[in-house]
């Protein structure tokens, strides 16, 4: 796994409890928890597929999130459909934290097993992420640098299992709702490519464009959103495969407390449909 993409996932994982309280989630009876049940300890998401023209009442486990008494995510499991031959693949993730509540270790156990170690700077921002294989050997080392405004400025990625000198450097710049990072080779500084990401006013990704070293550009991801009066996403349309024109549609419904109840998923070029149903456990 490339840590460049892991960092985006990490942000989502850390912010998940906050995000769910404002723009996502579900509970069995859709009731707001009582004062005695204010701590979220588990989120279970089940995927109900459409069969014979109707959404099946039998759901299969899709994702599960477990939180400790401090509200920190300690375990996540995914069981997402891969293809008709392999079926669903389950992967477990385990998280450890320091006394400040900062994630220090992430362990991934599935078809492959990895461990990620995190260190932080004086601003409590991630300074390094080191990826190890199941035998404890270094695979990749990422170092993060920040500007005075605490925005990410540079990420140096060394692919340790290949060479001490092989890797990439990502230099970030910001323009309004646009983030640009230029990737060069660690060894000699030659241009590898450029990624431009454009966001809406809710910080949701609208478009990701890749520009290769020859200047040719490709739209890699394209999203559009519809919102309700509360700023919650009601519909997301995505095309995140530059080699396909198939679009994915996600329609959201919410509980009274603002957590996600269901997400209905359909496609422009495929007949398969499903519904993700959220279940919340409080203590």
Summary, kept brief:
The chain has 283 residues and is mainly beta.
Report how far the terminal alpha carbons are from each other: 35 Å
Low-confidence stretches: 1-29
- What's the β-strand tally? 19
| Helical coverage, percent range | under 10%
Query: Outline, from the CA principal axes?
Result: globular
From N to C, what is the helix and strand string?
HEEEEEEEEEEEEEEEEEEE
Structural class: mainly beta
> Rg, please?
20 Å
Number of helices: 1
Overall domain count: 1
Outline the biggest β-sheet. Answer: 18 strands, antiparallel, barrel
Content of β-strand: over 45%
Average pLDDT reading? 87
Keywords:
disordered N terminus, 18-stranded antiparallel barrel, 1 helix, 7% helix, 283 residues, mainly beta
Account of the 3D structure:
The protein has one helix at 3-23; strands spanning 40-51, 54-55, 60-67, 73-83, 87-97, 103-109, 113-120, 126-133, 138-146, 152-158, 167-175, 178-185, 191-199, 205-212, 217-227, 233-239, 248-254, 260-267, 274-282. It has 283 residues and is mainly β. The chain has one domain (3-96, 162-282).
Topology:
Elements: H1 3-23, E1 40-51, E2 54-55, E3 60-67, E4 73-83, E5 87-97, E6 103-109, E7 113-120, E8 126-133, E9 138-146, E10 152-158, E11 167-175, E12 178-185, E13 191-199, E14 205-212, E15 217-227, E16 233-239, E17 248-254, E18 260-267, E19 274-282
Antiparallel strand pairs: 1-2, 1-3, 1-19, 3-4, 4-5, 5-6, 6-7, 7-8, 8-9, 9-10, 10-11, 11-12, 12-13, 13-14, 14-15, 15-16, 16-17, 17-18, 18-19
């Amino acid at each position: 796994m490339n840590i460049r993409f892991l960092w985006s996932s990490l942000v989502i994982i850390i912010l998940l409890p906050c995000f769910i309280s404002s723009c996502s989630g579900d509970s069995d009876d859709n009731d707001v928890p009582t004062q005695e049940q204010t701590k979220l300890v588990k989120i279970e998401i089940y995927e109900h597929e459409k069969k014979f023209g109707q959404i099946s009442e039998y759901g299969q486990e899709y994702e599960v999130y477990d939180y400790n008494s401090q509200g920190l995510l300690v375990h996540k499991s995914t069981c997402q459909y891969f293809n008709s031959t392999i079926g669903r693949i389950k992967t477990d993730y385990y998280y450890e934290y320091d006394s400040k509540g900062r994630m220090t270790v992430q362990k991934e156990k599935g078809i492959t097993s990895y461990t990620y170690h995190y260190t932080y700077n004086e601003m409590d921002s991630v300074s390094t992420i080191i990826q190890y294989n199941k035998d404890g050997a270094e695979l990749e080392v990422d170092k993060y640098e920040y500007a005075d405004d605490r925005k990410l400025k540079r990420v140096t990625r060394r692919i340790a299992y290949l060479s001490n000198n092989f890797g990439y450097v990502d230099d970030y710049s910001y323009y309004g709702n646009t983030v640009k990072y230029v990737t060069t080779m660690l060894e000699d500084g030659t241009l590898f490519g450029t990624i431009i990401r454009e966001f809406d006013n809710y910080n949701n990704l609208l478009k990701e464009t890749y520009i290769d070293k020859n200047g040719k550009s490709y739209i890699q991801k394209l999203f559009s959103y519809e919102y309700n009066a509360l700023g919650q996403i009601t519909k997301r349309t995505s095309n995140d495969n530059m080699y396909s024109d198939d679009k994915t549609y996600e329609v959201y419904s919410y509980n009274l407390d603002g957590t996600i109840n269901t997400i209905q998923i359909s496609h422009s070029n495929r007949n398969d449909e499903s519904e993700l149903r959220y279940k919340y456990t409080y203590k």
